[in-house]
């Protein structure tokens, strides 16, 4: 596997990390918001319960005062155990009861002012509130006839601890009663800086004791659901990893299917090109067969009969028929993959050239082209004889067709045979118009041609045949004019 550089690794994994971070962050925010919403709901529930319990107690104080004023209990002369003095045994938060009979005076002037206010409002009035002490005190005064009453109430004792919904020592909620700038701490709680703060403010349901209940809940960062958020991030990472693996498998499967389709299409294209090329190649032996049989027929009809010449023409027709059969056999072997390829034979390059020139001699004479063969070094190559002859035949035919475009006096065709680097080399050189530089890279492409009426299959088939025999076919410009086609094939006996 190819090792990726740091920029490549960043390019590959950065988008995935960004997606993981975005999804993880979103999930963690939702988990945190859900946890905070649950904590707020629990806080508000506890605060409302505390407000209701405290409201019930202070309303109870007003009821006790109203009962005293209505019943007006009187203590026997000289007795210190009056009925109102026994209220503390029933209501522990009531520390004492004071009574002012008609014509008497309160021991504290503030109680007198509170009684006057009570007469005006016809309701109990708060007096001498002290929230600063550890337990907290205040008095509640109610004006009545013939006697008025005042209750001394302990704020701490007012708290209904048995029904309290929060553990006083460990609860993080701070609860205070606030009146006229004074605050009595009912529950200390744990209020620290940072995080999120929930607050609850509401006055008690009492006209005379309308203390404000203030509850505060400070939620610190440590109270967030870190474990759930970590598990969510891990789950997202696992899901993304699984998704990436699935995507890779899917891409690999699609790539494999695409390669298979491309291979099938390429094979069909190759077979189509090969079949078209074979049809192109079969035209040569079939033409020769037709010419030889017609010549033999004429010779047999002559008087006297030229039997030896007719037999020679028939032999040439038979040879061309066999050649056509070999062309078809190679096509069949190309189609049937199960059939192993025919092993290379030792073929003399010079002999293949002579066979092609013998067949094309009439064409050379008709075009007025003198062909020169230069054997720089004898070359015996490993090749399929018929395929090699087809390549040479096509190269010479193409050269002859190219020479048609120049004056007859300038038509030259040279064939060089040699060897270099364990390869036999055949060079076909003509002095035709040559190949344009922009056309040269495309001369071996199927169906590419610059000749009017050409199929563009000859050179493509030659290049395919050369590659199939372990060789190579190339083209280059001939200076000052013309083209050079170079065929290289493995030598049969390598030094």
Tell me roughly what share of residues is in helical segments: 40-55%
Structural class: alpha+beta
What separation lies between the terminal Cα atoms? 40 Å
* Strands, total number: 15
Spans of at least 5 consecutive residues whose pLDDT stays below 50 are 337-342
Strand order of the largest sheet: 10-12-13-15-14
Please, what is the average pLDDT?
A: 83
Encode the helix/strand succession as letters.
HHEHEEEHEEEEHHEHEEHEEHEE
Largest sheet: 5 strands, mixed
Number of separate structural domains: 2
Helix count?
A: 9
Strand content: 15-25%
Over the alpha carbons, how many angstroms does the gyration radius reach? Answer: 58 Å
Shape descriptor reads rod-shaped
Protein topology:
Blueprint: H1 6-71, H2 87-90, E1 94-100, H3 109-121, E2 125-130, E3 137-142, E4 148-154, H4 155-158, E5 173-179, E6 182-187, E7 196-203, E8 212-219, H5 226-301, H6 307-335, E9 345-348, H7 349-367, E10 370-375, E11 380-383, H8 385-403, E12 412-420, E13 423-430, H9 458-468, E14 472-477, E15 483-490
Parallel strand pairs: 10-12
Antiparallel strand pairs: 1-4, 2-3, 3-4, 5-6, 5-8, 7-8, 9-11, 12-13, 13-15, 14-15
